[in-house]
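During the first year of the project, the team set up a workflow for recording each protein of interest as an amino acid sequence followed immediately by a discrete structure-token representation. This format lets reviewers and collaborators read both layers of information side by side without switching files. As required by the reporting guidelines, we include two representative entries from the current panel. The first entry is reproduced here exactly as it appears in our internal archive.
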Amino acid sequence: MTRQPPEPRLPTRPAGLPHPKYVTPRGVSPLVAVREAGLQYPNYTPFTLPNLTETPFVDRGLQGDPALPHLREAATAVIHLTPAIGTEIVGLQLTALTAAQKDELARLVAERGVVFFRDQAMDVHEQIAFAAYYGDLHIHQMAGIIPDLPWVHPIHKDETAVHGRSHQIWHSDVSYELQPPGLTLLKMDTLPHAGPDGALAGGDTIWASGYALYEGLSPKLRAFLETLEARHSGLEQAEKARRTNGCLRRDPIETVHPVVRTHPVTGWKTLYVNENFTKEIVGLEKRVGDGLLDTLFRTVAEGYEFQVRWKWTPNAVAIWDNRATFHTGIFDYFPHLRHGLRVAPQAERPHLDPDSVTRKESIAAAQQGQHGKQGEAAAP
């Protein structure tokens, strides 16, 4: 008798979800299942959630072995795609990872910014359970959802996305929240046939390293930025919801975060402003603050040596650290369909540790320490 795998353990569903009789079947893309049930997809049926409050968070990456022995022994290959950002792991199924491997994966994502896997046999229920290992799952204030799985943000554009290019902006997700997401997992299951003669092409995603962008700035500018805070706002997003689908689940929020934050696993400083949600530098004259933000936004967009561009294949997965990267999808496939599912565990409230260092400083110190140990070993 074949033993069936255990059902994925999902978080407790919030009360008052719309369409309470709908259930997404296992192993079926909600892109198909929700529509077959006669419901809107992505679903914008209004329901109300309590406002988010700050909750304790401990990053799983802190438990991961920096040498990644469990991941490396199981993988066929570990391929670093650029010097600054992006690693592909070959030969692993995310659903089969042990707790030790998951912790090492969190550490690797913290260091490399984004880690990629291809050909993942993971349905949406397994994706939710996997992401929930890393923290409380975020439910978006206004984006479309799967009716019974509100933690999932469908990434969906088709022939109706006539204004899709307006979303092609460098950002980190929902940075206006008190505790914005940390690790974020996106699986693409439907890719556009936008190439010549209907070839599978289009819809790549680009990520940029906040660590590398920050350490590329001049020391004087870095020192100044570390004294600053910025206002991140979800008000425009909320107003868009009111104008269009009328779906706003929580009170809109604005939050002040440091312009430079420290990652709790690496201890590295990273730039933390983004064009989508950062509206002003607190305490600076508006024209000065706006000029500074514009400079930083252009630095993100034009720092090509700190970017990695990922060409999706069906059932590929990207796991990135929303605290230390920026990303943008390339909208070059209209009017073709592109669909994926994103799940995002919340992390800690952004903060700057005054004793933290840049990535390069940390690596240099580690190398110096290694040289010192070698010298001690060679001494008579």
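The second entry, processed by the same pipeline in the following quarter, appears below.
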Amino acid sequence: MNTLLTSKARGAAHTRRRLALPSTRAWLAAAQWCVTLATCAFLVVPVVMSIVAGLTVNYFRGVASGLTLRWLDEVWTQYHDSVFLSLEVAAATLAITLMVGVPAAYALARSRTRLSRLIEELLVMPVALPGLASALALLVVYGGFSALRMSAAFIVVGHVIFTLPFMVRPVCAVCAAADLRTLEEGAASLGASFVQRFFTVVLPNARPGILAGALAVLTLSIGEFNLTWMLHTPDTKTLPVGLADTYASMRIEIGSAYTILFFVMTMPLLLAMQWLGVQTPGTGARKAQKTQKTHKAQQAQQARTHQDAQ
């Protein structure tokens, strides 16, 4: 009898637990999910609608008017030069930021003086200024050189100034986390020259930061509008400037089709940034620890070999 009553009591308690209201933590988690999904919808829905507009025969009639690739064909026919120019500018910007930004980040990471911190802040300053202000400064200083002013190199100069901090900062962070000074001292004790240390110790450990910076530079260069709009000429019109022209002077379907083209170019870069992680400091630190252990093991082995020889 007691056993039967006990089992009934347990069943009633289990039923009450099942019917109990969710806890405060569950309500907070649900609210966070709702806010996140609403924010994503607010940001993504306009992009989806713009893409659909570029594939419909008539935007005002919607999908009911039918789907077509006509607008994409017109955009490619009129603006394919802008596509190739944007890729060329982005590639040139990336090459220059790699050649300048990686050594600069290495030097800033190794130096701990106030001067190095001041230089780092000066490098970041163009990000804090509006793109129009930076472009105006370039026009005031270098606009008199007509050969430079009329070429795409002038846009590359502006893009390098704007994107250089996005190369320096991640590389500098990885180099600082990896404790390159200790690693280089270990390599130097094994007889490695500065060039050997830079290419075999510094660059492998800075690779996550270099990769993150390269993806950021490419994405920002392809999508930069404010600075490019001030610096471009009719013969040096990049993708963002062409996009603004299509929305201002042509049908909404053509502007939306141009958005699709822009989307196709930039999305692989954004997906690559997500796939590769871009958590550069942690990755660099783990690789640095492995490399440091390897150097210490090599030093210990060298010391044992020297003792045995004696």
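For the second entry, the following points were noted during internal review. The CA atoms of residues 148 and 154 lie 6 Å apart. The domain at 71-302 is CATH 1.10.3720.10 (MetI-like fold). Both points are flagged for discussion at the upcoming steering committee meeting.
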